[in-house]
């Protein structure tokens, strides 16, 4: 039923819409709405702005705060916490601390080296 509406009704509705749009477009801009005017502007003092934006130095309070909490947990506890927070991958494991072996002194004497040199290089 909708598609077979009378052509006269359709035209009337379209005509009204067009007229309304034209009327809206034609309306003159209201006088006194110029945005580029100085009226109502508050002049800001540059010095006040600077003081407002000046960085505040928190060093003193921060130092006091840092120095206040000097409680250090004992080694066993910190180790345990670290162990719990560590991942299970091999890259997350700390390297094993191996005791360094003392360099062993050679069992050969200077005389032995000289003898070997003579035998090897053929220098009498």
Automatic annotation (TrEMBL):
Annotated keywords: Nucleus
GO molecular function, one term: enzyme binding
Matches recorded under InterPro entries: AROS
Highest taxon of source: Eukaryota
Keyword Metal-binding attributed: no
A cellular-component GO term for this protein: nucleolus
Low complexity bias locations: 11-21
Compartmental location: Nucleus, Nucleolus
Principal location class: nucleus
Pfam families found in the cross-reference section: AROS (PF15684)
Biased composition (Basic and acidic residues): 90-104
Positions of region (Disordered): 1-40, 82-107
Keyword Nucleus assigned: yes
PANTHER family, alphabetized: ACTIVE REGULATOR OF SIRT1 (PTHR31454)
Sequence similarity: Belongs to the AROS family.
UniProt name for this protein: Active regulator of SIRT1
């Amino acid at each position: 039923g909708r598609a077979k509406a009378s052509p006269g009704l359709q035209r009337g509705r379209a005509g009204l819409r067009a007229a309304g749009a034209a009327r809206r477009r034609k309306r003159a801009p209201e006088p006194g709405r110029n945005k580029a005017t100085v009226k109502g502007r508050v002049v800001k003092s540059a010095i006040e702005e600077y003081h407002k934006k000046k960085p505040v130095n928190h060093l003193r309070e921060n130092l006091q705060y840092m120095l206040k909490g000097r409680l250090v947990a004992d080694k066993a506890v910190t180790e345990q916490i670290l162990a719990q927070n560590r991942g299970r991958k091999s890259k997350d494991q700390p390297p094993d601390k191996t005791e360094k072996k003392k360099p062993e002194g050679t069992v050969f004497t200077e005389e032995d080296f000289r003898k070997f040199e003579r035998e090897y290089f053929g220098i009498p």
